[in-house]
Amino acid sequence: MKIEIWSDIACPFCYIGKRHLEKALQQLPEIDAEITWKSFELDPNAPVNSELDIYDTLAKKYGRDRRWAEQMNANMVNMASKAGLSFDMESVKPTNTFNAHQLIHLAKEEGKQDEMKEALLSAYFSEGKHVGKLETLSEIAGEVGIEQQKARNILENNSYSNKVVKDVEEAHSLGVQGVPFFYINEKYGLSGAQPVEVFVEVLTEITQKNSAK
């Protein structure tokens, strides 16, 4: 089963959706899933270095006050906890994620794309790392088994920028409005951080349709 997932590492629902999908697949050992992570930028114009914390960033983006943003994030932390994730929103460093997406494309070529996606999501939401800095991204690459200098060179030269842009354009052609977006067998679309049981139901139904052909 081919599962393509458009997401952003600065998207909390994307991390939760990733974990829900993984738990669903654990319940469906008969499914051989080939997962590919696709690039999507929630805020392409976000600065690499921001003077605002996550609360003021969200408040500014949606035209609300800080208290609203704090409540939204509290709800997100609770949702993440139920998925087995520990979010530390106080330490999140808002940044531009374009280079992180380039790193995910490099990791795909190295056969480590899922490990890289997990490492970047954890770095952003749980570890308080600045994933917009090339130094930080290179260190994360090293942690998942990719040569740091190679990662640094690719980021400095924007070697995979065309792949990131291509993913974003493909998402728009499919009518993707938000992420995470799960595209299964190039036919079935599923949007949002769906509950585990929804993933199980959808994946089972698709498997049954394929076996009935």
Helical element count?
Answer: 9
In the CATH hierarchy, what is the class? Alpha Beta
The CATH fourth-level homologous superfamily: Glutaredoxin
Give the N-terminus to C-terminus distance in angstroms: 15 Å
Strand content: 5-15%
Q: Count every beta strand, where a strand is a DSSP E run of 2 or more residues.
A: 4
Helix content: 40-55%
Tell me the series of helices and strands, N- to C-terminal: EHEHHHHHHHEEH
Report Rg: 17 Å
Indicate the CATH architecture: 3-Layer(aba) Sandwich
Note poorly predicted spans. Answer: none
Structure write-up:
With 213 residues, the protein is α+β, with helices and mostly antiparallel strands. The chain contains nine helices and four strands, in the order E-H-E-H-H-H-H-H-H-H-E-E-H. It has a four-stranded mixed sheet with strand order 2-1-3-4. Strand 1, helix 1 and strand 2 form a beta-alpha-beta unit. Helix 1 crosses helix 9 and helix 5 packs across helix 6. The longest helix has 17 residues. It starts with a strand and ends with a helix.
Task: Give the key terms.
213 residues; alpha+beta; Glutaredoxin; four-stranded mixed beta sheet; 9 helices; 54% helix; 9% strand; globular
